[in-house]
Each structure stands twice: as structure tokens, then as C-alpha cells.
Fold:
Amino acid sequence: MKDDIMLIKELAEYLKINEKTAYKYAAEGKIPAFKVGGAWRFRRDEIEKFTKGQYVPTLEGDVSDE
Structure:
């Protein structure tokens, strides 16, 4: 099985889109994504569901250390 987490470059190749477009979609919340150390990451299973129209985003509140 391939890695469960994709980088922006891998996502762009997988979706056959430009990396700038992938960044834009992630920032706008158009595709399921999360950040690690300021860099976008994508869960392969969520992206596969997204491309099939089966992805249902979860509503998670911001976690605070306060």
C-alpha cells in the first residue's frame, strides 16, 4: 500500500492539476487537507473519497492550549 499521507506535489500529480491550484484549493477548503508545520498534507483515503464524490467533511473545532 502506498503512503497514507500525500504532499502537495503528490496531490497535484494524482489530481492532474497544477501545484498552485492544489495550494489554492487546500487554502479555500475545497479539498480535504491539514497542515503540519505550515505545510499542507492530504490523507489519501479522503482524497480518493473526494474524487468519487463520497467525502463528507467532519466539523472539528479548533483545539486550543488555553
Notes: Residues 34 and 62 are 12 Å apart (CA to CA).
